[in-house]
Design a protein that fits this description.
2 domains, MetI-like fold, 342 residues, 0% strand, globular, mainly alpha, 15 helices
Amino acid sequence: MLTFTLRRLSLFVFTMLVLTMLSFSLSFLFPGDTVINHSGQINASAEELAELNKSYHMDQSIISQYGAYLKHILNGDFGLSAVNQSSISHDILKLLPATIELSLVALLIAMLIGIPLGFVAAIYHNKIADSAILSLAMLGYSIPVFWLGLLAILFFSIGLGWLPSSGQISLLFEIKFVTGIQLIDILLSDSPYKWQAFRDASLHIILPACVIAVAPATIFIRLSRASMIDVLASSYIRAARAKGLNFRQIIFRHATRNALIQIIRHVGLQFANLVTIAMVTEVIFSWPGIGRWLIESIYQRDYSAIQSGLLVLSCFIFIIHILIDFIYAGLNPLARGNKYGS
């Protein structure tokens, strides 16, 4: 396990360095002065510009400039937004938790729907239920997320009036910022209207989370179906049948747990796909997350925000991948190295 951990940590450090190099190179590709692209201080005076050039080592080699940029990043200094001159670090810390909250709820919905349906399809392999579930998965994966989001707003918000069409919570409730995850902040608050606010926030998150969850749910259907089919065809399942265990005991005691282990390794990949879908969905539902902020920065040509936002999102997604690898290795010892399975 120690070797596995050291290998993953070295991969993490190497990937972080590569991501910072890519982020650093964007400042030279964007139009304008490189040091202004780094710092975002478009209204800097001559004295401030000279200080910035000195801070970022712009009169030295490219390696020294990268080292200075890396030092700013490690200190949490992502510069200022070129649009409103606000701190990018502050904006990211304020907006990223909302995206994490939306993505986690959508991932939970996708797993709760996709995995059981995939197991049902595998149990009724090559039967009507299997064909119907696979057809449903193909249909769900083919629907564009922006069209599905607009259709959901038209039907559930405007037509039926069941769910809110935009925002994270009603303006009637004032919740103090603690973690940035709205549902947790509501539970931590001492507001007398806590449970009304919690219900309102839950209603606001249902529609965008369900829209985001559609595509990952269809992938979980296919993954869980394939995993369950492999498990049911394995030798230990045949041995369980030979011992006289009934079908329900085989499925719930043996097949389901082993099939889930194979699915866990794919959760990180689906989470990265899910965050990408969330960026578009945040714009449709006016969700105050980092995806909406980043897309607005692209439209406004806020180069310092684009540079920092892409770096933070990439690092966050990679950290999720590392955590999923550790969880998978903890559940499946064979994944820690060949010597453990030999």
